[in-house]
Amino acid sequence: MKTAFPAVLLFLFGTTLAALPQTPAVTHNTWSPGAPMPIAAGPAVAVLKGQIYVIGGGAPTGNSADTQIYDPATDSWTTGGSLPVAVSGGCAAVVNNALYYIGGSAPSGSGWTGTVWIYDAKTQSWSEGSQPMPTGGVNGWCAVANKLIYVGGGYNADEGGFLTTVWSYNPATDTWAPEPPMLYPEAGRPAVGTIILKGTPWIVVTDGSGGYPDGRNQGYDVTTNAWSWLASDPTLRQAPCAAPIGGRLYSAGGYAYDTTFNVTESYSLSQNAWNKPSKPLASMLLGTNSGGSVAYKGQLYCFGGFSSSTSGSSLINNVQIYQP
Fold first, then answer.
1. What tens digit of pLDDT does each residue of 120-174 get?
2. CA angle 118-73-42, nearest 5°?
3. Domains of the chain
């Protein structure tokens, strides 16, 4: 019995190992396709309770009232409640399990608005907030820090054109407060993300337009309420797909004049540097600009947009997913 006992243990241990589920290997620095969007758009995007909400229409033209919902776990789509009006060029954010769509173009498809729309996932319906953003704008940015929604930049001819204005919205009190303006106007759907540096939230804004595509990069220290210049993106562009992942802001695609890019780059706030040209990141499957984007479970999701920057180009329904 003494000689057989270890053999029995070895047999049982080996059987237990074989029965353990195997975790699929992650292939890093790769793009892969997702199930196409049912309706092509250049939307605003946000994550609510594990679902990615894809809201509204395209940029620079085309409004939509559609709410499309993507399930990353099943790579499938469902339809949410439609907005009361068609929208485009606004931005989306989630605070305390509530989804907000802010600003963008007026319902007519021209002009700009500061309207706040709030989505109730239980009833699948939108309602208009009681307090619009004081300065409306189209193709600006949203970021969340300390349970506040920061909204900045964009374009509003009534306010002088390209904007440096920044407002913070407190959903708990339904109030807006002015924040220090950006160092340079950022419109054209810039890349934006909130990154924590040594316990402090920073809002990083880059790859926008103050009248032309540029790689200017500026960061807002939420604790000190101060803007600083950061290292510029080596690719001068606007309207990329972008989101923060693991302390870095990833920016992919975008356009400058007649060129739409498929290049992917990332910015490290702690190093104040972009990825080295000697170590390029994987290119997008399809060069895209003005798509909607968000980070979820360590991946960058890019929805729709345009595959060309030429006048009259059509919206696409592609879904592209990047694994850093």
1. 999 999 999 999 999 999 999 999 999 999 999 999 999 999 999 999 999 999 9
2. 50
3. 27-323 (2.120.10.80)
For residue 60, is the peptide bond before it cis, meaning its omega torsion is within 30 degrees of 0?
yes
CA 253 vs CA 92, 204, 271, 290, 320: distances in Å: 20, 18, 23, 9, 11
Surface-to-core class of residue 180, CB atoms within 10 Å of its CB (0-12 exposed, 13-18 middle, 19+ buried): middle
CA distance 78 to 68: 6
Task: Kindly list the distances between the CA atom of residue 189 and the CA atoms of 87, 137, 180, in Å, as whole numbers in the listed order.
Answer: 15, 11, 20
For residue 2, pLDDT over 80 is answered with no
CA–CA distance, 242 with 225 (Å, rounded to integer): 23
Q: Could you count the other beta carbons within 10 Å of the beta carbon of residue 81?
A: 15
Distance in angstroms (rounded) separating the CA atoms of residues 66 and 292:
14
Q: Are 209 and 236 contacting, i.e. CB atoms less than 8 angstroms apart?
A: no
Check: CB of residue 187 under 8 Å from CB of residue 208.
yes
Token reading at 215: 């790689």
Per the DSSP assignment, residues forming a β-bridge with 196 are 201
Where b means 16+ CB within 10 Å and e means fewer, 129-168 reads: beeebebbbbbbbbbbbeebbbbbbbbbeeeeebbbbbbb
pTM: 0.92
Render pLDDT for 20-73 as a digit per residue (tens, 0 to 9).
Answer: 556 667 899 999 999 999 999 999 999 999 999 999 986 545 789 999 999 999
Cβ atoms of residues 86 and 107 within 8 Å: yes
d(CA 36, CA 110): 28
Question: Which H helix or E strand runs over 68?
Answer: strand 67-71
Hey, which bits of 146-238 come out as E strands? 148-152, 155-156, 161-162, 166-170, 175-179, 191-197, 200-206, 217-221, 226-229
Please name the residue that has the structure tokens 């509204």.
Answer: 56
Structure tokens at 244: 């923060």
